[in-house]
Amino acid sequence: MFNLILFGPPGSGKGTQSEKLIAKYGLKHLSTGDLLRSEIAGKTELGLKAKSFMDAGQLVPDAVVIGMVDAAISANKGVNGFLFDGFPRTKAQAEALDDLLRSHATEIHVVLALDVPEEELIQRMIGRAKTSGRTDDADPEVQKKRISVYRNETLAVADHYNAFNKVVHLNGLGTVDEIFSLLCKEIDSRQ
Ligand code: B4P
Asked: Which of 99-108, 131-140, 150-159, 178-187 has the lowest mean pLDDT?
């Protein structure tokens, strides 16, 4: 099994690159953003709870997200590995993920971090808002909030895995294909 975390600030291209990586490597894609948006679309109790946090640019509470990931891992026994996209986003989520994977006798093998400057993140979110209908992309205050949440809460995830020498930083500026080939090089060298 090969498990990787695609890490980076909001709008850094995690979802874009994940689509290409799962097609190439046959990993199970686990995007907490996508899972939460599908709960919202289905108007479930969890979705209703998550929506107010997401619309405000805040993180959905750890317990909700960890429960969702726990269920998704258990429902996908026997896969080649997982590509975690947008998860973990806090140190508590990282520790919970390590415990969950340990209970399935596996671990995170590498964290690939996309580095993208703030001005570019804002431009990408503005661009995505035009077609996605995502309310969290359209409002400049919410964009700023999401970036500050990333700095204050999510960067700790990179520190957590850095302590185990598992983090590789990559330039997230360039064409989608250029970034994809940087990611593939790192994965290929570990498989
Ligand atoms: P996510 O769904 O994870 O979304 P994201 O971080 O905004 O975007 P991503 O990095 O995937 O960017 P994308 O490829 O689409 O999170 C949304 C919200 O859900 C969070 O704010 C939070 O509230 C909640 N949430 C999710 N997970 C959570 C968790 N674990 N704990 C708590 N809360 C959680 O790219 C963005 C745009 O850039 C696209 O338009 C794309 O086309 C464009 N783009 C991509 N690559 C490009 C490139 N190389 N050049 C130019 N443009 C590019």
From this structure: 131-140
Whole-model pTM above 0.85? yes
Ligand 1, CB within 6 Å, residue ranges: 8, 10-16, 32-33, 36, 53-54, 57, 59-60, 65, 86-87, 89, 93, 124, 127-128, 136, 146, 174-176, 179
The tens digit of pLDDT for each residue in 44-84 reads: 999 999 999 999 999 999 999 999 999 999 999 899 999 99
Domain boundaries, the chain: 4-184
Q: How is domain 4-184 classified at the CATH fold level?
A: Rossmann fold (3.40.50)
**154 vs 1: CA distance, rounded Å:** 26
